[in-house]
Amino acid sequence: MNLLELRDVQAGYGASQVLFGVDLAIREGEVATLLGRNGMGKTTTLRALFGLLPLKGGEIRFGGERIDGRPTDAIARLGIAIVPEGRQIFPNLTVLENLGAFAQERSGARERWTAERVFALFPRLAERARAMGNQLSGGEQQMLAIGRALMTNPRLLILDEATEGLAPLVRDDIWRCLAELKRSGLTILVIDKYVQRLVQLADQHTILERGRVVWHGPSDRLAGDTSLWHRYLGV
């Protein structure tokens, strides 16, 4: 069953159209990616998904329900959580307070996300539990941003450039944690530029070029055709 579906989505800013018939479908328990160079429509797709941008055409469905046109907070309450580019944690709250501020139950899962479970996923955060957000390193802030999203107990987790600007060892830790989340059955949409790691993690990929889907397929096909990387991703 498809958890998320974008069908012929068209969107833009004022008279300027950015998305031209974007299709995307993610099945329950699947990891998918949305790829493309900067300025090709990835952020606009997310804004349309979260109701921050009205559609000019097409529709968006989540859990079988049409959600385009709904307020952003109502869409989030359905069980969609995002780890935004830039992290956006609360600098004047501790790690524990940041996690507690986002504690919700949206997925109906039997095993809920708690601070203890987040600390098991990210042991470094357990060591920094009483530290303020502005006292954390960039990598620790990114771990906290992911943990905070998980505290909403989402049905769909979206990560927007979650490894951008991080040291290689920290990136490795993030990839390890995403693999664990995949094994747990969480549905995930990843926007990132590290194609070498994404083909190891994700089930399927969608590439955008100038607001249009120019390629879609599974990891083995993307891994086996590096010409796509150079043509559309600048790798």
In the CATH hierarchy, what is the architecture of the domain at 1-78 and 189-235 at level 2?
A: 3-Layer(aba) Sandwich
CATH topology grouping of the domain at 1-78 and 189-235: Rossmann fold
The CATH class of the domain at 1-78 and 189-235 is Alpha Beta
Strand order of the largest sheet: 6-7-8-3-9-10
Query: Would you tell me the overall average pLDDT?
Result: 94
How many helices in DSSP terms? 10
Helix/strand/pairing class, anyone?
alpha/beta
Helical fraction equals 25-40%
Poorly predicted tracts of residues: none
Strand content: 25-35%
Question: How many strand units?
Answer: 10
Kindly provide the radius of gyration, computed on alpha-carbon positions and rounded to a whole number of angstroms. Answer: 17 Å
Written as H for each helix and E for each strand, in order along the chain, the element string is EEEHEEHEHHHHEHEHEEHH
- The shape, in one word, is globular
CATH H level, superfamily name of the domain at 1-78 and 189-235: P-loop containing nucleotide triphosphate hydrolases
Measured distance between first and last alpha carbons = 33 Å
Largest sheet, strands/sense/barrel: 6 strands, mixed
